[in-house]
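Lecture notes, unit on protein representations.

Consider one protein chain, 632 amino acids long.
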Amino acid sequence: MASFSDSEWRCLCEKYQRSVFLSETESKQDPDNDPFRSKYSARDLLKEIKATIVQADGGGNESDLEQQASCQQDIDPELQGPSIVAGECCVCPASLATLRRAVIEYQLGVNHAETEELSAGEEHLMNCVRLLETFEATPESISLLIQARNQLGILWAGREETDKAQSFLENAELLYTKYTKEIGKPPLDPSEFFMAEEQKLTEQERSRRFEKAYTYTLYYLAQVYKNQEQNEKAARYCHATLQRQLEFNDFIPLEWAINAATLSQYYITKSCYMEGRHCLAAASVVFELAGEIPSEAAAQESEAENEKREQLCQRGAEIARCWIKYCLNLLLDAKKMLEDNIGELDLDRQDELKAKRRQEEEAKEIDRKTAVLFGSSDTFDSILAVEEKVSCAYPLDFDEARAIFLYGQNNVNVAKEYFKMDGHVTDHIEILQDHSALFKALAFFEEDYERCCKMHKRRIDMLEPVCKDLNPQYYLLICRQLQFELGDTYFEMMDLKIALANKQESLDSHTIKKINHLIYSSISFYEQFLESLKNAENKFPEKLEEDVLRPALVAKFRIARLYSRIISSDGNRQLESLSKSVEYYKYVVDYCEQDPDSKKAVETELELSEEMLGLLPVRLERLRDKLNNSCN
């Protein structure tokens, strides 16, 4: 086996390092019309290095190298020639040739994959894996083995072959676990096989690079599990990735913060509010590490400052929106726990949960330890400080709910600063809808009906102007959502005003006028919603689409109820209102008879509609008789 002179070896190392620079650094400056120029130049250098290694080995082909590697354990060390030092590990010539060849095959595989030549990339990466098979999990090969499997996982995931991608990545995970358990010593980095002795890496740097490779394994596994809809696994691996990035101080603050905020949304959907809050608190803290947001004046003077300002403002607003969802979902889940069978606050249940909470206070610290925590010594205290600003426990009374509401509302204001109506119509309206939902959730905890009405009035004040200004031709779905919600809000206010009126001995004209105004406003928005469902011929559909089935039938049901609530001393007007009420109730019943599958969507409304159709005709008949008698 031939060896290299010192000058030849240094030349080879320089070529290798040049190829890495071209691929990882210079390529970022390549023009749009020649995006892979540097990658191709790097590939040419790698091919030259490969040819030199093969020639130095006597022109042996790939199978010869593999055979040499597999036989190395049987060769007398004295017959192998002098050992060659790579870093601090002594490697025999046969093994070293195989390892160097494997490194070049790996780099060629990555190069081809990055230039969208996946078949060639797969071939080179598999060559790398085959060359390393006999080494298994050794300090010389383990890092390269893991990185090669990572790249094969990415490659197969890009082909949407997630099972194959999963297999390679899980194998990389097993290799890491086995190595760290059985050996644990920081292994050689692949780059060290093309370094002069004086360039060797420190133990600390080897460890950092090795752990980074494994962090990528976890990151790619998280993506694969997500694509396979194994959401729990995906979240666990994403959390572990983020945790390791902080631990090893290997992250881009803005990217890390958004990923942590996104992960929080998974925890929120699973009602894991301690974990969700922890992710969001960490996102808020790490976001601050990205730097200060440039002023508007600085942004106007410099394109770079303008881009930075835009990016930071957008990401900050996105994190704020995740906080809004956290607060809203926490309030809504608490509402579900506390409401009775008619949707009102169950006071007995409230007392029971408060007593239970007092008993569980001692276990609070234990619960904290079961959560997967982020942070290093530099960030952990800051994360905890953010967490203390908002609870992760279900609110059980108005004061607790209000604290969560206010934190959510503060983030609404932050989000609206970036997502303005001018330029971000859909996002701005979604934030307004969430703000409205926060008020609605808070109103559930308020026992004072007058204050509840004021909260619903705030919802109307923020949504009604937007609804009137939007063009349904371009924003039909949003218009429908707003129309239905406004109808619903006026409906709730009407119920509250009637409940307050029932406590009075008699109704004054002002109260009657107010109740009727709320009724007609609610009917108006429900009717606008139903009008939007008509076809091009201005006809209401005989068969409702699944996505609008329940809203349409609920709107019909509520309009029926609203007409029956109109207060009037005019008998003819009463007769007209009750007749319309019967008409709308009848629509709900008839539709469900014609389409039995729709009954599941409106079970409660259907039952009440049938009941009212049994009562209202009698009431109508009596009213007619009364009017006829008065005329006679």
